[in-house]
């Protein structure tokens, strides 16, 4: 991810929003109670040390049960704050919830209707340490890493979605070691770019982004070895399978650290789920040119005219393949 945030940390007195997701088997789903925590980095603020934040007012994050929305523009101490980056905490509020994705599926419902060109509504996973890092740890949103080494720390990453209302891509990023040699470009599938399907993800399209859609990602494995990552979209009672899946063949990976098996080895250690909303003018890789229908970008104009735009995530489920939708 390419968003840049300035440092701060949470106080122990901060009230983390309560958050519920569901763990599923073929027999059904059961609720899991936890919390959400904002990353200790936040845009355009000085080091806040142990000062708590008001999630809705300061970073535009609103949580109700299993639903969370992220607003584009907020204000903290008179300074503009763009988007947010949040993680799921365990019930003890001391450790991140780790999801071991190999052989499982991860499902959520998202409302993308307000997300224009210049804005990226992303949900992804990273091999972050459960306890976080440094003085503040997971309880303060510390320890972030990803395959682009944002904030200076590198680790394997899987982008479950990076999207606007004009295009969507999901991408695997492996690394040579747990903390270095990461494939920053990764291997991804975008229906607009890779299948020339310009109406797949669009207003009124096969997946109608003017309405909420349930996105199912299946991490297919043989034993503990990841072999393929498949995608389904569920809307209006109908499941739509992506035309292509990620595999060693699709990615032209031939083993070693650039392989499904390597991505799976990272998943087996456990990944932290990240909800992120950010903007910028360099989004053509995601939804412009041959990647999507956006023809121009002006994030300053979007911030000025649509400061309250939001993405809404809900109904997070994790479990056995074909058990969550």
TrEMBL record:
Q: Which reaction does it catalyse?
A: Endohydrolysis of (1->4)-beta-D-glucosidic linkages in cellulose, lichenin and cereal beta-D-glucans
Report the superkingdom from the record. Eukaryota
Q: Transmembrane ranges?
A: none
Cite the EC number: 3.2.1.4
The protein, known as: cellulase
Enzyme's top EC category: hydrolase
Q: Name one GO biological process term.
A: cellulose catabolic process
Named from the GO MF annotations, one term is: cellulase activity
Q: Which family does it belong to?
A: Belongs to the glycosyl hydrolase 7 (cellulase C) family.
Key words of the record: Carbohydrate metabolism, Cellulose degradation, Glycoprotein, Glycosidase, Hydrolase, Polysaccharide degradation
């Amino acid at each position: 991810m390419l968003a840049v945030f300035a440092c701060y940390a949470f106080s122990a007195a901060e009230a983390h929003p309560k958050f519920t997701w569901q763990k599923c088997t073929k027999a059904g789903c059961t609720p899991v109670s936890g919390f959400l925590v904002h990353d200790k980095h936040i845009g355009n603020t000085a080091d806040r040390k142990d000062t708590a934040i008001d999630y809705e007012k300061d970073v535009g994050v609103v949580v109700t049960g299993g639903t969370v929305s992220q607003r584009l523009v907020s204000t903290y101490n008179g300074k503009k704050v763009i988007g947010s980056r949040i993680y799921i905490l365990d019930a003890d509020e001391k450790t991140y919830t780790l999801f071991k994705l190999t052989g499982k599926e991860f499902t959520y419902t998202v409302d993308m209707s307000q997300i224009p060109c210049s804005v990226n509504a992303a949900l992804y996973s990273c091999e972050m340490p459960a306890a976080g890092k440094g003085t503040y740890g997971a309880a303060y949103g510390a320890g972030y890493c990803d395959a682009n080494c944002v904030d200076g720390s590198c680790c394997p990453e899987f982008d479950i979605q990076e999207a606007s209302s004009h295009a969507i891509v999901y991408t695997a990023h492996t690394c040579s070691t747990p903390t270095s040699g990461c494939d920053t470009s990764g291997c991804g599938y975008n229906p607009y770019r890779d299948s020339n399907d310009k109406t797949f993800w669009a207003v009124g399209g096969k997946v109608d982004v003017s309405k909420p859609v349930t996105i199912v990602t299946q991490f297919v494995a043989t034993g503990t070895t990841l072999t393929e990552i498949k995608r389904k979209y569920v809307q209006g009672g109908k499941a739509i399978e992506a035309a292509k899946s990620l595999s060693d063949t699709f990615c032209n990976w031939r083993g070693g650290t650039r392989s499904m098996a390597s991505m799976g080895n990272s998943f087996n250690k456990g990944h932290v789920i990240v909800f992120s909303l950010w903007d910028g003018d360099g989004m053509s890789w995601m939804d412009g040119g041959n990647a999507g229908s956006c023809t121009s970008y002006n994030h300053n104009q979007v911030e000025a005219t649509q400061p309250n735009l939001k993405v809404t995530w809900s109904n997070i489920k994790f479990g056995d393949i074909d058990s969550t939708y």
